[in-house]
Amino acid sequence: MQRRARSQDAKLRRAEDLLEAARTLAAERGGVRHITLAAVTEVVGLHPSAVRRYFDNKEELLLELAERGWQEWRDAFTTHLAGAKDLTPTQTATALGVTVARLPLFCDLLTHVPLSLEGEVTIDRARRFESNSFTAFDTMIDTMTATGTMTTEQAEDLLAAAVCLIAHLWQVSHPTPALTRLFDEEPHWGRMALHFEPRIIHFLQATATGLTMLTGRPALAP
């Protein structure tokens, strides 16, 4: 029993090493699209085939980081608004933008979760991701309604819109080297590629303001 426990502890530590290596490489290489399993395992000192002891594939490793990103955003957001009362919709939107901008890896991963990550893992792993991410989502909704003046429906719509906006705007705001050169030559094409934080805050403020002017939601499809 003791040997088994030590082996399990070692496995958990090695899995954490792989996740940390992926974080480091994403920061160094300009995003998760440049991460390979070979590079991750090289940092940790493993043979690429050995990663399957810890994660089925690269997508499962990155999905784990995305799941933790939701928890990190939830914690940062609830801490940021601790003690707040009667916030306006634009103040709530600002808090969403400020806190998510501090999580660059999560912003990047939000693009890849629906694009590839969830579709390349087992259904049980996808179910776990959905369960944990929606738990974080719901906690953030509760925080928004407890500290601000938005209704639950408005808060849900704002957070859903935030995820969509972040996923696109992060990529546009962090162009590839080739696009960076192109935007240097044609600045009017690169206007959307600058200053992620103030732009996401502005878009979320506008969305929050608009949501408070609407009555009801479109009917959901059966």
From TrEMBL:
<dbReference type="InterPro" id="IPR009057">
    <property type="entry name" value="Homeodomain-like_sf"/>
</dbReference>
<dbReference type="InterPro" id="IPR050109">
    <property type="entry name" value="HTH-type_TetR-like_transc_reg"/>
</dbReference>
<dbReference type="InterPro" id="IPR001647">
    <property type="entry name" value="HTH_TetR"/>
</dbReference>
<protein>
    <submittedName>
        <fullName>TetR family transcriptional regulator</fullName>
    </submittedName>
</protein>
<feature type="domain" description="HTH tetR-type">
    <location>
        <begin position="12"/>
        <end position="73"/>
    </location>
</feature>
<keyword id="KW-0238">DNA-binding</keyword>
<feature type="DNA-binding region" description="H-T-H motif">
    <location>
        <begin position="36"/>
        <end position="55"/>
    </location>
</feature>
<dbReference type="Pfam" id="PF00440">
    <property type="entry name" value="TetR_N"/>
</dbReference>
<dbReference type="InterPro" id="IPR041483">
    <property type="entry name" value="TetR_C_34"/>
</dbReference>
<dbReference type="Pfam" id="PF17929">
    <property type="entry name" value="TetR_C_34"/>
</dbReference>
